Amino acid sequence: MNYKSIVRPEAGLVSRAIFVDPEIYENELRSVFGRCWLYLGHESQLPETDSFFTTFMGADSVVVTRAQEGGVRAFLNSCTHRGMKVCRTDRGKAPHFTCPYHGWCFKNDGTLIGVPGMREAYYNELDRSKWGLREVAKLEIFRGLIFATWNAQAPPLRDYLGGMATYLERMLNRSEGGIEMVAGIQKWDIPVNWKMIAENFLGDSYHVPTAHGSVVDIGYRRRPKLKGYQISVGGGHGFGSELGGMGGGGATSEEYDKFLAQVRDNMGRNNDPADQFIPLGHGTVFPNFSFLDNVKFRLVRMSHPRSPTLTECHTMLFVDKALPADLRDKVRRDFILSFGPSGMFEVEDGEIWSELSDGLRGHMARSLDFNYQMGLGHDKPVSEEFGGNLPGRAGWYWSELNHRDFYRQWRELMEAPDERPR
Amino acid sequence: MSALGSAELFFRVRSFIARETRLLQEGRFEEWLQLFTPDARYWMPIATVAETRAGVESGPSDLALFDENVETLTLRVRRLRSRTAWTEIPPSRLRYFVDPYSVEPVDAGRVKVMSNLLVRQCRLHREDNLFTGYREDLWQEADGGYAIAERRVVLDEAVIQAKNMTLFV
User: Fold this and answer.
1) Is the pTM of the predicted complex or chain greater than 0.80?
2) What fold is seen in the domain B7-155?
């Protein structure tokens, strides 16, 4: 596959094939999801020793544990004998996991501790120390968010996030005590390639007035002001927003808006230009960790690939620990009303993404390029626009700058020769 | 009293379900909103995969799939009436099968009704969503019929297979 000929961000052109082709998808699972830092979940999902939850890294099922030994650990959810999932629930508490197929038993630190027939059938010759659960190569926690990678050569998480860390700080660490996750994860399938969702959160303020026109019509969201930015920090990471926080409108947002103003005021004492980015807006950390941080709520959205044209979506709600309880409940309701499978905004995205994907079945539809030329050549350093030494480059409120850098990063990984992990 | 109450009570419950079914299938959402008491809660917790039955449903202050009052339900209906509500333009073909399996008078004028739900949504050419679950309702006597004071719906899917949820159940 010649990726340079099908993905040309420098010209603002990307082949539609990368959203449907099974061979490209297979390479993605290895070259993108096998190499990048991926989000697993929030620390609060592991409240005590022996807590666990399951999630995905790419299309791989993983179990994340808080083990007696070594704190937070993450493993491929696959028995080393025949690959049966050793854990089949969303979350719970367990010191060990027993495979339901032949009974191999693993401690929650991955150690293989039980093999039926060890003496009679294996003649005590099986080296249990070699057959523990496959552990991630690296795991790090950033402001309570657990990330891991299968790639032993991956840079430290902070380096991977690069300039994005500066901005994520404004989303994750802006009031006393930091953030916490509201319990519960919305999970649903959208029949579209995962990248279509990741790129939308990453840099698409352009679709709001059209795709979400109905929410504007009823006054729940005011018509976008057309003043704002898209910011790409490199590495495929980026975000964007209307100036002053997006998503305003309707009576319900006022109190949370006031809370955010207070947060900004408190932060403002340090005169850090990064504090202009509270709330941060919409964004994606490459490849599939997305977020929305607006004047009504703050969500994290994972787009887990299940096939070239199927994505399992997970959304989670995060609030400041300092948020008063009644306001927390209001924020929770506002989030449910707006995003997730039933949300008044998100229902339209699901409709559009799945119908555009269905439209890519034919030969002709697949042989064309998508156009990513918006704002090509019109971005400038963020510091020029917003002061300080802020990292990244900024385009106007409607710009496909972030998309182009996303696919640049994607192409680089897809072309890079395969270093066999471990 | 049987699981379905007296013959008369069951007939009244069934009649109310029939009326609601008709309104929803025919897209008469403004009339459907009139079936709720002004302070009603419409709540759909998330079903998760848990070790025991008790752990399956998300709690009252957790994230949910719907957690509405009449005001937000009204907003959702108003949105559906927008000329740019793409999710229902063209409209879905909806079929509701609601089967009460427990009818229990609570106190004067209130009755608790539990029903199984099977809702099929067909859209455009090939979209086909099947939602099954159960519904736990608290109804209040009103105008010779009932008004819904509380509705709690739990769908059976832990990962919703539909690309979105634009219907009411």
Assistant:
1) yes
2) Nuclear Transport Factor 2; Chain: A, (3.10.450)
